[in-house]
């Protein structure tokens, strides 16, 4: 008799409607991400088309880039994304202890990225490599400049999250804000990985 009741309970639980799956973060961030990725995809396609027509010129200018600095920046952003993932997981599981420190670590990695990029640009400018130095560097400074702007916006977002996480009042709205910030930062990371491959690795 007991087993029959248990089976009925399980059947009733399985027949009950399940709550709809929640989209991570604010819905508007996905519209922004898809739009931003579409624009960058057009940029990338334009770059590859121009490169196909001027392979020798692009290969010559590509040799002047500092692959080591680009690699350092890639490691910094990948590390920052990992820290953001860990922080958001803590927030969503109700354990905010340490989440602000993880976000601060990601913010530090972002600051390191900006510092390394400043060093790289300074060296290129000293070598008289700028926007007007050819088609390759026009694309390089335009793409990396727009991406750098995304990094700065993302850092401002991360700074806001640190304040939000440390507040005593914390609910579902604040948790979704943390998810939204994480989504934006992962997009910034993904865009850089593609830029790194296009400008530093493709020969």
Automatic annotation (TrEMBL):
<keyword id="KW-1133">Transmembrane helix</keyword>
<feature type="transmembrane region" description="Helical">
    <location>
        <begin position="28"/>
        <end position="47"/>
    </location>
</feature>
<feature type="transmembrane region" description="Helical">
    <location>
        <begin position="183"/>
        <end position="202"/>
    </location>
</feature>
<feature type="domain" description="Heme-copper oxidase subunit III family profile">
    <location>
        <begin position="28"/>
        <end position="203"/>
    </location>
</feature>
<dbReference type="InterPro" id="IPR000298">
    <property type="entry name" value="Cyt_c_oxidase-like_su3"/>
</dbReference>
<feature type="transmembrane region" description="Helical">
    <location>
        <begin position="100"/>
        <end position="119"/>
    </location>
</feature>
<feature type="compositionally biased region" description="Polar residues">
    <location>
        <begin position="1"/>
        <end position="15"/>
    </location>
</feature>
<keyword id="KW-0472">Membrane</keyword>
<dbReference type="InterPro" id="IPR013833">
    <property type="entry name" value="Cyt_c_oxidase_su3_a-hlx"/>
</dbReference>
<feature type="transmembrane region" description="Helical">
    <location>
        <begin position="139"/>
        <end position="163"/>
    </location>
</feature>
<dbReference type="GO" id="GO:0019646">
    <property type="term" value="P:aerobic electron transport chain"/>
</dbReference>
<keyword id="KW-0812">Transmembrane</keyword>
<dbReference type="InterPro" id="IPR035973">
    <property type="entry name" value="Cyt_c_oxidase_su3-like_sf"/>
</dbReference>
<feature type="transmembrane region" description="Helical">
    <location>
        <begin position="67"/>
        <end position="88"/>
    </location>
</feature>
<dbReference type="GO" id="GO:0004129">
    <property type="term" value="F:cytochrome-c oxidase activity"/>
</dbReference>
<feature type="region of interest" description="Disordered">
    <location>
        <begin position="1"/>
        <end position="22"/>
    </location>
</feature>
<dbReference type="Pfam" id="PF00510">
    <property type="entry name" value="COX3"/>
</dbReference>
<dbReference type="GO" id="GO:0005886">
    <property type="term" value="C:plasma membrane"/>
</dbReference>
<protein>
    <recommendedName>
        <fullName>Probable cytochrome c oxidase subunit 3</fullName>
    </recommendedName>
</protein>
<comment type="similarity">
    <text>Belongs to the cytochrome c oxidase subunit 3 family.</text>
</comment>
<dbReference type="InterPro" id="IPR024791">
    <property type="entry name" value="Cyt_c/ubiquinol_Oxase_su3"/>
</dbReference>
């Amino acid at each position: 008799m007991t087993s029959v009741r248990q089976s009925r309970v399980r059947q009733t639980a399985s027949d009950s409607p399940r709550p709809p799956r929640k989209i991570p973060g604010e819905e508007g961030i996905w519209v922004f991400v898809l739009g931003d990725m579409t624009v960058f995809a057009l940029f990338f396609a334009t770059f590859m088309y121009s490169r196909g027509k001027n392979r020798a010129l692009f290969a010559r200018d590509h040799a002047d880039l500092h692959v080591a600095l680009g690699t350092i920046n890639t490691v910094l952003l990948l590390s920052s994304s990992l820290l953001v993932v860990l922080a958001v997981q803590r927030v969503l599981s109700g354990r905010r202890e340490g989440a602000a420190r993880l976000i601060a670590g990601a913010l530090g990695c972002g600051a390191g990225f900006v510092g390394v990029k400043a060093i790289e640009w300074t060296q290129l400018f000293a070598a008289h490599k700028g926007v007007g130095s050819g088609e390759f560097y026009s694309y390089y400074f335009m793409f990396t400049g727009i991406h750098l702007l995304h990094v700065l916006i993302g850092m401002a977002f991360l700074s806001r999250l640190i304040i939000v996480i440390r507040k005593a009042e914390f609910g579902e709205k604040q948790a979704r804000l943390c998810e939204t910030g994480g989504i934006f930062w992962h997009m910034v990371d993904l865009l850089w990985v593609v830029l790194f491959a296009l400008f530093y690795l493709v020969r």
